[in-house]
Amino acid sequence: MKRAIVFGATGGIGKAIAAQLAAKGWSLYIHFNHSSQEAEKMVAEFIDKYPSQEFFPLKLDFLAEDEVIKTTVASLLPVNAAIFTQGITNYQFLGSQELTQIEKIMQINLLVPIKITSLLESQLLKRKHGRIIFIGSVYGGQASALESVYSASKGGLSSFAQGYAREVASAHLTVNVIAPGAVDTPMNAIFDAETLNEVKNEIPAGRLAEPSDIVFWVENLLDKRSDYLTGQTIYVDGGWLV
Question: Alpha helices, DSSP H only, in 85-223?
């Protein structure tokens, strides 16, 4: 049985990834922090639709102490893939941000995903086609003003994936980043219609990405035929910035 854990599974991109993987026969851990009702709802719907597969809600606060993270990861059944879709940002000038907020962004977007990857390594190396996929950002390649810390965290994911992929490539464990541009998800709902239209006008493809545009590349990276693609950042941005 192929099993994956989708971190941030109740978010816009995470939810789309989980739904597609469930439809493709994957058993899933549905990770959440605050959205327990949404996670439970997703699990119940998946169990009803796909009774031969296994689905579990998984609560983990990425700001928790290391011992909590270790205990949570140690409790997991073996997984073939880990997909990190969680992420936060803070749209402000750096000098206006609290130091605790800067640390929070780096912790959730970069540091804890690296820690969890380390804890999952031993079991993923045993899989024939192990997969680690990070959802990064176009801003990891070309950083954005007012989101400099967010940009640094996403750029850090790309650098980490490039280096770590070389450590585990011989075991057919691939490590890649999918870096979307602007995606039509609740994360971008903070911007008004005028601002979003300005962004659309800057994108050569003429629209924001849909979550399904990202899911397509997740599916490709999970395919066993993708063993030779590793350490890469794939920009899915409609020709926008990178």
Answer: 99-106, 112-124, 148-168, 193-202, 211-222
